[in-house]
Amino acid sequence: MNKTLLFLLAGILIVFSACQQKHEANFVKVANNGFTLNGKEYSFKGANYWQGMNLGAPQSGDQQRLLRELDEMQELGITNLRILAASEADSAMRYCIHPALQTAPGVYNNDIWQGLDFLLAEMGKREMKAVMVLGNFWTWSGGFPQYLRWAGMGEVPYPQEPPTSWQQFTDYSKQFFSNDSAQEMMKNHIKTIIGRINSITGKAYKDDAVIMAWQLANEPRGYDVPKQLQKWMRATSAYIKSLDSNHLVSLGTEGNTADLVSGVNVLIDNDDSNIDYITMHIWAQNWGWYSPEQSDSVYTEMLQKVNSYWDVHVDAAKKLQKPIVLEEFGIARDGSSFSPDTTTNCRDRFFEFIFNKVDESIKNNGMVRGVNFWSYSGEGRPPHPGEFWKKGDTYLGDPPHELQGWYGVYDKDSTTLAIIKRCCESKF
């Protein structure tokens, strides 16, 4: 081979390598049991802000409020937002966000699409990363129950309407994992959103480094059909990877729950090459471990349960050699009040405990490398605290299927925000 050809080939390789590095720049990757960004170790402190795309909608939303709240979170040091990248609801769907992104199978509300475009564009300006939630086991974004309705499986049994029970609802929602028609509808949405071109930035979502990860669903549970859940998770993760090699994929499960009946298993569920990192949720109050009106002795017992739960997930992460994100945790205001005027002493104490655990893990190269608290309500206030969200109500961090004012952190919760800011500013 002559020298001219060698020089030509070398030049081509250099150009190709430079283009590849430029293409991969700013995408979060997984390496050495942790996250990396542009070749450096990466960890993050963030929030759940699922309502962002609805606030960003130019017609039905409030873009100025969205900009103020993004600025507020940036000032706190928040660099990661877990957001909805899907919502499904026809006019009859209840206990869910309206307006929805998808109003019938394959039929989209362009106003909400533009809201998501706007949110991602503004996050990019603030160097924030997005975890994009693609589905939901619960009704608050339509999710599996809406897909099942569209697939002809009958009306949703809403547990918010007695005498319907939560088991009746979960028996309904888990049918998604064996319903080919419902799964195909969601698969079509996944293909649509990964290939979407942002109307503001001109970037395809699959090429947008603002996005850290695609997440299969919010809290999918298998209950008595865990094999069906696992089959769906593996097939869907592989499908996402076949469409997009730039972004990470996570499940969105709680990891484990407080009992065995939910049909999730942090070790088995995440043992798949297409799952890049483990998700963990800690819901001490929902799981009956503690509520703010109880005694300090119960609080101490709750912390012991949290530590044990944490350790089980860390052990699973070590076996799988994958990092963990604690992407949901929260607790109610003092006395379990729904009023925004109620103090947050119990919440502050719990937030400080959790954030300290996360900081300690990051400091010592532990398996937990990121956290998203639940959730940022910003300027929003419930018009009727302790009642369910209704169409036309302001958007809060509390989802529509739960009583409004339960867990959301407001922009005036100064003591809670100070703890979040102190945690976000921790450098190691």
From TrEMBL:
Stretches assigned to the Glycoside hydrolase family domain: 26-422
GO molecular function, one term: mannan endo-1,4-beta-mannosidase activity
Domain of life where this protein originates: Bacteria
Keywords on record: Glycosidase, Hydrolase, Signal
Reaction catalysis annotation: Random hydrolysis of (1->4)-beta-D-mannosidic linkages in mannans, galactomannans and glucomannans
A Pfam short name: GH5_mannosidase
Enzyme class name: hydrolase
Signal peptide: 1-20
Gene3D superfamilies according to UniProt: Glycosidases
The enzyme's E.C. designation: 3.2.1.78
Name the UniProt record assigns to this protein: mannan endo-1,4-beta-mannosidase
Protein's organism: Labilibaculum euxinus
